[in-house]
Design brief:
binds ribulose-5-phosphate, Alpha-Beta Plaits, globular, 6-stranded mixed beta sheet, 26% helix, alpha/beta, Rossmann fold, single chain, 2 domains, 4-stranded antiparallel beta sheet
């Protein structure tokens, strides 16, 4: 995985942006390039408003003078551009490696179009090699973890040094080692039935376009 392939995919996605749009702004090192390019376009006169999916993206957008709205200010979003940790040929995704999965999913759920930007290493035949991030409430997190484990994985509380990582929403994340996920839709529903689970990183029937940047400088497009 190289910066070049991320940059290729990230910048290419700006071609979907049109004047006047409300845009969901994703999180991570690939969509970073989308947001950088968007900053240039805004400086050049493009009129858009962005809804950030994380505090990290909010900070970046502010540095680039991209006008922002909060999710509470909008009813729907024209286009969201975001990254992913894994994507398959059905455009099912694992997201949340950067810890922003809840806000990303909320914003994706009201977006008319979701464009995903990845480098070639993220495009996989089957989901699950990347540990699936699941956002859970801190209260009784050990019990929630056990209930998640019963679905057939090894959950690991995400920590920084020794302390649990706390999301922008004040929750914890468990990274769940499934190895393979054969039915993403069924797992998505089963995880979200567990009371302590806030949301999980499976995005099923959400993405419309996948842009894959390759190290040789080429780009592949997949759409639903
Ligand atoms: C953050 C995400 C990111 O989109 C995902 O982790 C991909 O990030 P990157 O482009 O840095 O590899 O879901 O919650």
């Amino acid at each position: 995985m190289s910066t070049k392939s991320k940059q290729l995919a990230g910048e290419k996605a700006t071609e979907f942006i049109k004047d006047g749009m409300v845009l969901g702004l994703g999180t991570g090192s690939t969509v970073y390039w989308t947001i950088q390019k968007l900053g240039e376009l805004v400086k050049g006169g493009l009129n858009i408003q962005g809804v950030p999916t994380s505090k990290q993206t909010e900070k970046l957008a502010n540095q680039l003078d991209i006008p922002l709205l909060s999710l509470s200010d909008v009813n729907d979003i024209d286009l969201t551009i975001d990254g992913a940790d894994e994507a398959n040929s059905n455009l099912e995704l694992i997201k949340g490696g950067g810890g922003a999965l809840l806000r990303e999913k909320m914003i994706a759920s009201i977006s008319r179009r979701l464009v995903i930007v990845v480098d070639q290493s993220k495009y996989v035949p089957e989901l699950g090699h990347f540990p699936l991030p699941v956002e859970i409430v801190p209260f009784g997190w050990e019990i929630t973890s056990k209930q998640i484990a019963a679905l057939g994985c090894l959950p690991q509380l995400r920590r920084e040094e020794r302390d649990p990582v706390v999301t922008d929403n004040g929750n914890y994340i468990v990274d769940c080692h499934f190895n393979t996920i054969s039915d993403a839709k069924q797992l998505d529903q089963a995880l979200n039935m567990i009371p302590g689970v806030v949301e999980n990183g499976l995005f099923v029937d959400m993405a419309n376009e996948l842009i894959i940047g390759r190290d040789d400088g080429t780009i592949d497009f997949l759409s639903t």
